[in-house]
Write a structure and sequence with these properties.
single chain; alpha/beta; eight-stranded parallel barrel; two-stranded antiparallel ribbon
Length: 254
């Protein structure tokens, strides 16, 4: 069954953490900028506060990118709401992002186990099932998320899935396994993107998206290789490159 999430002309352009090359990562301004450029795909992360509020934020702790400190899962939303990314930007709620741009699609990395239940409730409340792809570096975390979903949602491969593709396991076996889990894409670091990996992933029924590509020449080489999607902080550079190749497909053009 094809994924509605991936039903858009390729190559797909993803604004990584909203497009953090132009505004603070995962800030409202970053997402708004990417949407203004025409990005159909926004990449972000999910954590939940101690009182179950899901925020679009990458780290487990506030310390690195905000003017506050502490683990998100151990703080209330009232406490997290006082933090400012880069000292200036509030941390957005995932639900607010989903509702602000109902025609945008969100690639969401489930970053911590406490976020799983609250994230499913956000998807239920916003009815965003077809507009999200869930991913995680933890196979256990993604499995736990799937177990709570009331309907299939697009997911990406976890590291064991990527390893199975690279190891050369029979693609018929992989295809059946991925389909049963609603795995529709392999999202990999650019260093892993090879012709062999692309062939095997596609034989298993998957698109291949690479991250995080900020150099124009590397973007060019990945497009020449034939990847299905690129995640970037440098949203303006990727858009300009795709436009120069006649391959820019903004939101609403699918």
């Amino acid at each position: 069954m094809p994924s509605v999430f991936l039903d858009h002309p390729r190559p797909l352009a993803f604004a990584h953490r909203g497009g953090s090359g132009h505004f603070p990562e995962n800030s409202w301004k970053a997402f708004e900028h990417a949407v203004g450029l025409g990005y159909a795909y926004l990449e972000t992360d999910a954590h939940a506060t101690a009182d179950g509020v899901v925020v679009a934020f990458h780290d487990k702790r506030l310390d690195r990118v905000t003017d506050s400190a502490g683990r998100v899962a151990e703080l209330t939303w009232a406490q997290v709401a006082r933090a400012r990314i880069g000292g200036t930007e509030p941390i957005p709620l995932l639900a607010d992002l989903l509702m602000a741009w109902p025609d945008a699609r969100f690639n969401i990395d489930v970053k911590d186990r406490p976020a799983i239940g609250p994230l499913v409730e956000v998807l239920r409340a916003t009815r965003a099932w077809d507009r999200v792809c869930l991913t995680s570096f933890s196979a256990l975390r993604l499995r736990a998320t799937r177990s709570l979903l009331p309907q299939p949602v697009c997911t990406s491969t976890t590291p064991p899935g990527v390893g199975a593709i690279r190891a050369g396991l029979p693609t018929k076996v992989l295809s059946a396994r991925f389909a049963s889990l609603s795995v529709r894409c392999a999202q990999i670091p650019v260093s892993m993107a090879t012709p062999r990996f692309l062939r095997r992933a596609r034989a298993a029924g998957l698109q291949v998206h690479v991250w995080t590509v900020n150099d124009r020449a590397v973007m060019d080489s990945m497009l020449d290789l034939g990847v299905d999607g690129i995640m970037t902080d440098q949203t303006e550079i990727l858009r300009e490159l795709l436009m120069s190749r006649g391959a820019w497909r903004p939101r609403g053009s699918g």
